[in-house]
């Protein structure tokens, strides 16, 4: 099982690709942030069904009991798990497109596309899977689509309900992380000051030193 807390008490998913902190302020945004830029390259932390259910526990979309049962079921139904994983990634990517459009407007957020609406409605699954959870019978009929349904539920709730803060995209280039700005001043610019914020400031410092070094030569 992945660790749930980092040293600074922010929930974090630890994987072979590194640490992914839950900085979005909402599970739907954390879902989008599973693919973003880091150190000059785009990283996708959802590498397969096992990674998906590991991450979902940290994001609060699965209980540890559900995680364990789905992990056992994945070994028995690998093809079904692979299909669910592919559908989850497609939902995540179209959700990221919507969030990118929403963070580029300062007036009214665009309505979700028909494709996004359809994917969310479809992913919620039959018989209210996202709400009811897995059957009581161990593994018998365990629905591999539960993490997909819970992600869709988080997206639907984010779209339908009011939320504290302003939706923003990290200004570090590149990053692509989205978050809710709940600061009093409403001037939060980065997903995290100790990573993207420091990187941007260091880049500016290097550029300033370079400019100062060139300036005397012009005189």
Summary, kept brief:
This protein is mostly helical.
Task: Write a concise keyword list for the protein shown above.
single chain; 219 residues; mainly alpha; Jann2411-like fold; two-stranded antiparallel ribbon; 8 helices
What is the element layout, followed by pairings?
Elements: E1 12-15, E2 18-21, H1 27-32, E3 35-38, E4 41-44, H2 49-58, H3 64-76, H4 78-103, H5 114-123, H6 129-132, H7 146-160, E5 166-169, E6 178-181, H8 193-218
Antiparallel strand pairs: 1-2, 3-4, 5-6
* Helical content band: 40-55%
What would the CATH topology be? Jann2411-like fold
Taken from the alpha-carbon principal axes, the silhouette is globular
Estimated structural class: mainly alpha
Cα gyration radius (Å) = 20 Å
Q: What is the number of helices?
A: 8
CATH architecture name = Orthogonal Bundle
CATH class reads Mainly Alpha
End-to-end C-alpha gap: 62 Å
Query: What's the rounded overall pLDDT mean?
Result: 85
- Major β-sheet strand ordering: 1-2
Strand content: 5-15%
């Amino acid at each position: 099982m992945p660790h749930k807390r980092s040293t600074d008490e922010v929930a974090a998913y630890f994987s072979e690709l590194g640490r992914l902190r839950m900085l979005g302020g909402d599970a739907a945004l954390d879902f989008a942030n599973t693919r973003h830029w880091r150190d000059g390259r785009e990283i996708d932390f959802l590498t397969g069904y096992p990674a998906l259910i590991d991450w979902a526990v940290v994001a609060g979309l699965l209980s540890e009991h559900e995680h364990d049962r789905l992990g056992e079921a994945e070994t028995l139904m690998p093809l079904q798990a692979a299909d669910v994983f592919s559908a989850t990634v497609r939902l995540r990517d179209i959700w990221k497109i919507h969030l990118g459009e929403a963070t580029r407007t300062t007036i009214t957020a665009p309505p979700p596309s028909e494709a996004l609406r359809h994917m969310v409605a479809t992913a919620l699954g039959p018989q209210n899977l996202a709400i009811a959870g897995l059957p009581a019978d161990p593994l018998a009929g365990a629905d591999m689509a539960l993490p997909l349904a819970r992600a869709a539920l988080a997206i639907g709730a984010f779209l339908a309900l009011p939320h504290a803060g302003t939706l923003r995209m990290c200004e570090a280039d590149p990053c692509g992380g989205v978050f809710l700005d709940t600061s009093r001043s409403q001037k939060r610019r980065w997903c995290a000051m100790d990573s993207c914020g420091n990187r941007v400031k260091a880049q500016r410092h290097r550029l300033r030193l370079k400019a100062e070094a060139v300036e005397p030569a012009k005189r």
